[in-house]
Amino acid sequence: MIPSPDGVLVKMFQSGSLIDFIIEISILSFGLIPLMAVMLLGVIAIVIERFYYFVRVVKAGEAMEHDLELVKPQNVDQLSQVAKHYENAPQSKIISAAITVRGQSAEAMDRQIEEALLWQLPKLDRNMWMLDTAVTLGPLLGLFGTIAGMIESFNAIGLGGSGAAGKVTGGIGHALMATACGLLIAIIGVCFLNYFNKRIRIAMHQMELIKTMVINRLCNTPSSTAAVADKSTSTAGVNAAALKPQGA
C-alpha cells in the first residue's frame, strides 16, 4: 500500500529518519521531487548572488553619475580618481577606456568606449540563462510528475483489490506535490528574472550616460575651439580675397 502525502509526512516526523523519507519520496515520485528540490536551491542561490551584485552595481553607477557632474572639462586627474574609487564596478571600465584614448576625436573615442562597454555585458547577464531555464523547466517537470502520478493511480484502479483506494489517493497526492514544486520554482524564478532584467536595463542606461558624460568632458578642448576659430579666420580670408576687385 502506497501511503498518502499526509501519511508520509506523519511517518517522517514520527520516525525522525530524514534519509528514509528522502529515499521513499524519491521512489514514489520517480526522482522528480528531489530533482526539483535541487533546482529550487539553485534558483535561490542565483537569486541571492545576482541580487547583491545588482545592488552594488546600480548604487555605484548612481554615485559615479553624481561624481562625474563635478568633474571639470579636461581634468584627467579627477576622472582617474573616479575610476579608481569605483574600480570594482563595471561602469568604471568606461572611464578607464576613455582616459586611455583621450586626445582622439569624439567618434573614435565613442567606438573605443563602446568596445569596453560590450566587454562588461556578460558580467551583467551572468547566470540569467539558468534562471530562465528553471522558470521554463520547473512547470514542465511538475506536469511530468502529474502524469506519472495519474498513471500510478490508473494502474491501482486497474489492479483493484483492498488496497486500491490508498494507491489511488497516493498517486494523486504525489502528482499534486510535483505540480506544486514546479509552480513554486516558476513563481520565484519569474519574479526575480523580471527584476534582474530591469536592473540590467538600468545598468546599461547608466553606462550610456557615463559614456556621454566622459566624452563631453574629454572632447571639449580649447585646442579644438582654437582650431575651429583658425579655420573660420582662414575661410574669411579666402572669401575676402575672392571678393577683392581684380587689379587692386
UniProtKB/TrEMBL annotation:
Q: How does it sit in the membrane?
A: Multi-pass membrane protein
Acetylation as a keyword of this entry, yes or no, is no
Q: Which residue windows are transmembrane per the record?
A: 21-48, 129-151, 171-196
Ranges for domain MotA/TolQ/ExbB proton channel come to 88-208
InterPro entries associated with the record: ExbB/TolQ_transport, MotA_ExbB_proton_chnl
* Cellular localization per UniProt: Cell membrane; Membrane
User: Keyword annotations for this protein?
Assistant: Cell membrane, Membrane, Protein transport, Transmembrane, Transmembrane helix, Transport
Q: Which Pfam families match?
A: MotA_ExbB
Residue spans making up a coiled coil are none
What protein family does this chain belong to?
Belongs to the exbB/tolQ family.
Database matches in PANTHER family: BIOPOLYMER TRANSPORT PROTEIN EXBB, PROTEIN TOLQ
Name of the featured protein:
MotA/TolQ/ExbB proton channel family protein
In its UniProt entry, the species of origin is given as Parachitinimonas caeni
